[in-house]
Amino acid sequence: MNIVSYLVKRFLRFDKEQPFIFLSALLAFSGIALGVMVLIIAMALMNGFDNEFKKKLTVMNYPMTIQPKFYATCDTALLEQLRQKFPDLSFSPYVTSAVLSRSGDQMEGGYLFGVDFAQEAKVNRIVAEGLRGGIPKNFEVMVGKSLKEEFQLDSGEKLTYIFTQMEPGGLALTPKIKRFNVVSTFNSGLSAYDKGFSYTSLSALQRILGIPENLYDGIHVHSANPEADIGRVAAALPDTVSIRGWWEDNGNFFAALKMEKMSLFIVLMLIILIAAINIISSLLMTVMNRRSEIALLISLGASKQEVKKIFLVLGIVIGLLGITTGAILGFLGMWILGTFDIISLPADVYPTSTLPLDLSVVDFFSIITGAFVIVLLSAWYPAKKASEVDVLTVLRNE
């Protein structure tokens, strides 16, 4: 073992007679460090953006939603039954209608929700924050920030909603039209939701749509862990209603993000693979340059396993130094990108101007393990060639 460590240290030194060997090892070290650094930052960015999208989608899509099947309805009896059986969850009944919002000559399509604001505030923190500006009552409405800015509305102004429901008007059927007073504004951070969603009182929209007070279009459910709770809630529901989680409506989107993340990991891992080729070339050149020394070592009693171990350890040392340096640089880059406003993000999409970074433990160890395996395989072949040096031929010729 002393021979192995002594020769590894010696072979790592700069050789004036063969500077290209040292340069090749330095390039291998730099390439592995760069690859690990880029992989760590890239995986952290992918996880950060995934988490930001999940937060946004969870807020406006609700963790779970109970909806009736076919022409059935949700009623007060079902709502009270669920509240008694699941006191740890929050339930908010709603009715909804597709509408066109109009202000002057401007129009925007979307949905108008009728909710009990006291209950809705428990399941939607964005609505709860918007209620600080005022609680909508009969024929008053809470609109999104983007819609308010687009229509240039002030609090107390009128906003006209055109419903898809029809009512008799003269000789033809005309859509229902109702004007609401704008009393408050919510800001979800996503302009599509801020333009498309509006909230009014449950009783007001039930009256407009002709829905009895004890019937609803659905029930929003808040849970800290919806993936685990959806099963037990579904088991307590009658056959006339169903429940779905927010992730079920966005399954294709997150599947695409997962595939993109995996593809990025594989592509960036190729950087480490290319750098590992420099390890192979550097070790092979070292073996060719040290053939006489290797032959002399074997003739003096060193075993082929010891010779193989020398070059295997040499390659592993170069690789581990690169992996360690890359990990340090990766975490340093994450800290810089997460602390300083280097890259500007659109304010209407993200709540912060700095990049969202979140490196999971699984991703970190996957990067380190993958890089180490590549380094180990790269060092194995030159080590094997070193142990196969023909002692007699080398000593006879050199």
Automatic annotation (TrEMBL):
GO biological process, one term: lipoprotein localization to outer membrane
Pfam families named among the record's database cross-references: FtsX, MacB_PCD
Residues spanning the membrane: 20-46, 264-289, 310-337, 357-381
InterPro entries, per the entry: ABC3_permease_C, Lipoprotein-release_system, MacB_PCD
Cellular component GO terms, alphabetical: plasma membrane protein complex
Localization: Cell membrane
Keyword Membrane: yes
Domain annotation MacB-like periplasmic core: ranges: 26-237
Swiss-Prot/TrEMBL keywords: Cell membrane, Membrane, Transmembrane, Transmembrane helix
UniProt key word Transmembrane: yes
Membrane disposition: Multi-pass membrane protein
Chain ranges of the ABC3 transporter permease C-terminal domain: 266-387
Family affiliation: Belongs to the ABC-4 integral membrane protein family. LolC/E subfamily.
Descriptive protein name: ABC3 transporter permease protein domain-containing protein
Organism: Sulfuricurvum kujiense (strain ATCC BAA-921 / DSM 16994 / JCM 11577 / YK-1)
